[in-house]
Design goal:
Layout (H helix, E strand, L loop, with lengths): L22 H10 L9 H29 L6 H10 L6 H16 L3 H7 L1
Helix pairs in contact: 1-2, 2-3, 3-4
Length: 119
């Protein structure tokens, strides 16, 4: 019988911390959505951290599959929108399309060297 003393409890995932989004960023986003006097338990932050990381991976994986079919290497904003549509996240599409258009307009006025530095 295999030694399971270091295994996580059944049904519990153990995440690789290197693949998770920074908890400080997640905390900041959560605080912006809550009243000023609200507090968020560490367990809730950890749960959201795992969920948003998984969500991003899920959408990115779908976009990557599409890129492979088209023999491309760069994921664009439109690829993300198309992937979200394919995965059934239609309620977010209008918001994302507006955001993408505003982002493109904002970047259009910046010199290309500045755009590269911001990433």
């Amino acid at each position: 019988m295999a030694d399971t003393s270091s295994a996580p409890p059944q049904g519990q995932l153990v995440a690789n911390p290197d693949r998770l989004l920074p908890i400080a960023n997640i905390s900041r986003i959560m605080k912006q959505a809550l009243p000023a006097n609200a507090k968020v338990a560490k367990e809730a932050k950890d749960c959201i951290q795992e969920c948003v990381t998984e969500f991003i991976g899920f959408i990115t994986s779908e976009a990557s599959d599409r890129l492979a079919k088209d023999d491309r290497k760069t994921i664009t904003g439109n690829d993300i929108i198309d992937s979200m549509r394919a995965l059934g996240f239609n309620e977010y599409l209008a918001f994302l399309q507006v955001f993408l258009e505003k982002r493109r307009k904002a970047l259009k006025g910046e010199p290309s060297a500045k755009r590269r530095k911001k990433g």
